[in-house]
Amino acid sequence: MQSSSVRSATSVGSRSSDSSRRGTMEFFPLRMMGTVIGGTAMASNLGMATGPLAGGLIYDSFGSYMWLYVGAWGIGAFLIGLTFRPMVKEQAEVARAV
Prior knowledge:
By secondary structure, this protein is mainly α. Helix content is about 85%, strand content about 0%. It has one domain (about 5-95). It is built from four helices and no strands. The model is unreliable at about 5-15 (pLDDT under 50).
């Protein structure tokens, strides 16, 4: 019999993975699910494996966590910038007219 803390920790983990799967299912067709879930699992595991090593090396090199935060903000800003689509010429003309 599992203790309540083990059951609650397990249920919390399964909820977060269920919600990420639901989000994945909204944006990708069913025939690509294996590829998408495999790719996201690989990327998250690679990040969890290399993140502490990279963070430790940066901290040891610069003696501060500042550059870790600067790098995280820079990567985040770059990725947010990738989500915006460039305006097509007709859309730009309509936007100017309004």
